[in-house]
Input
Amino acid sequence: MIDYTKYFNKRIKSVSPSGIRRFFDIANEMDDVISLSIGEPDFQTPWHIRDEGIRNLEKGHTWYSPNRGFSELLKQITEYYERRFGLSYIPGDQALVTVGGSEAIDLALRTLVDEGDEVIIPQPSFVCYEPLTVMAGGVPVIINTKNEDHFRLKASDLEASITPKTKLLVLPFPNNPTGAIMERRDLEEIAEVIKKHDLMVLSDEIYSELTYGGRNHVSIASIDGMYERTIVINGFSKSYAMTGWRLGYALGPEPIIAQMTKLHQYGIMCAPTTAQYAAIEALKNGDRDVNKMRDEYDMRRRLVVDGFNDMGLSCFEPLGAFYVFPCIKSTGLGSEEFCTRLIMEKHVAVVPGTAFGKCGDGFVRVSYSYSLKHLKIALERIREFVKELENERQG
Amino acid sequence: MNKLLQLLGANSQFSTAELAAMLGEPEDFIAAQIKEYESKGIIKGYQAVVNWDEIDDARHVEALIELKVSPKKDLGFDEMAERCMAFEEVESVYLMAGVYDFAIIVKGETMQDIAMFVAKKLSTIDGVLSTGTHFIMRRYKDRGMNLYSPGSEADERSLIL
Output
């Protein structure tokens, strides 16, 4: 028997698999489980977008695209960023189409991070930044954002985390799992620190179309002096309900995109072309779909936030993405115990906040990318559970 | 489009508290709004969507009847519609644009019931030129709800973060 571990790269050995797996295994074994744990839209990709993919397959358009992506798609992406967020990029030089936003994050980290470089990562946040930083040879430096700040990144916390080795800040807003957003004045304060210390920013804007309360997403690249210091990551998964198509993109300074393209060219060749054709249609004619889905999410968001506050699990009003992040400390349980008991006793699955960083303890991530009917049932079950916990404590 | 009506139209079982939360309005405002819709007849009622096909001896048959009529001076479409509506067997009456004038949904316990009703009651109304009876064999979707493949609502998404 060969001991394969002796062949493993030392970095991959240090990366642990996502701890959430165990949890999903329990959920998968129950047939009446009500899940509020999935981090992707419940909507199907709008039909006209799917149809465009089908049409191109029928026509036999089954070849590679240029490494960067079809020029028409690059043009549509840059026009979209101009139209929605007031940022102009040159399609041929400053844009790269990737296999989901995830690939773009990986490319950006591998392009910028050298052995020992520190990468600042606010948490709670999506699970990929830390392991991808480690794989790139970097050292993750975690900033814990706080409930009382509505999980926004504070410039003072950023300043305090910077050392001579700091190179890059990951800025994941609108945020998964907290639903937090960063408004212009928050970003202006962050930008001052970034410029002062001559750092770069990786701005993961995958949820940029999902902001509520009349607030449009603001990209840090649109803050004075930040355009040249920011790599913007975005994609089609969340805004157009296209997760399975695996299509994302990066926008940024030409020399950085050129390096990222090199990696992409050798590792991936090009993003799937059927998805690229569909994405062109999404950008050209998909605004209505985005607005419709946003309105629907917004109603669900209000229902869920109200439901949690009403049952005594305090929940700040999240203004982005499709998650709420209620505090469960009042129940006396930690995140993992709360989630385990909730799934065993009430067959409702939510994700422990600790899956997104140690500072997520005391919170759970609740996804509202489910139908209103489904959400209503789930909230009722959680309400019963919280009441039972309360009786337990008093009894 | 009125969001409150849209929500109630899809599911009338939301509480006023839930509706208020979803729409970001005070609960008493929503309650007053609903009351107003009800009193003005904008909300006509609340019904369950019943899937009769799932009941073995439902004795529930429905048919769509096409009606061609010839309106007269003091017997216009409205008057003819009112006569049709008066029968309790008649579920719905619609004035149509196209090759016939009224589409009427009739319900009964058996096909025979409906056939006799059409022959004796509908086709004998003054001004009715002809009828065409189409029995509904199976309801796949009704009032926006899938009655055919209930499993299709199952979540196919994989459990990943």
Chain B touches chain A at residues 3, 7, 11, 14, 17-18, 21-24, 155, 157, 159-161 (CB under 8 Å).
